Amino acid sequence: MCQIAEQLLQKDASRRLGSGPNGSDELKQQKWFKSINWHKLEAREIVPKFIPAVSGKHCTANFDEIWTNLPIDDSPASTPKAGDCNYFRGYTYVAPNAWLD
Fold it and tell me: Does the pTM exceed 0.85?
């Protein structure tokens, strides 16, 4: 599982699993997904092994209360307006890496 996770989480999108010339077929051919019948899945012919009971669109009954009781933290940044193409211009971010510190 670690190898497929590493391939999916590649920072360089051109090296990420599924970004090659075969697209999603590259992902579907991984041994982790060998047992999936992709044609039946796409046709919605596969019955899930577990269907969670939900009481509505915003039901959180299937999540542990440790998460649902947390305070809601809203972002201090304003929401970009539609058509604001310059909102992230010049923005860069590199996650801190403990291995390099």
Answer: no
For residues 8-45, one letter each, b for 16 or more C-beta atoms within 10 angstroms of the residue's C-beta and e for the rest, the string is eeeeeeeeebebeeeeeeebeeeeeeeeeeeeeeeeee
Cα–Cα dist 41/47, whole Å: 9
The string of pLDDT tens digits covering residues 58-75 is 899 999 999 888 887 766
Query: Which residues neighbour 62 within 8 Å (Cβ) at sequence distance 6 or greater?
Result: 52, 53, 54
8 A C-beta contact, residue 29 and residue 35:
no
Q: What's the mean pLDDT when you consider all of the chain?
A: 83
CA–CA dist 72, 59 (Å, integer): 16
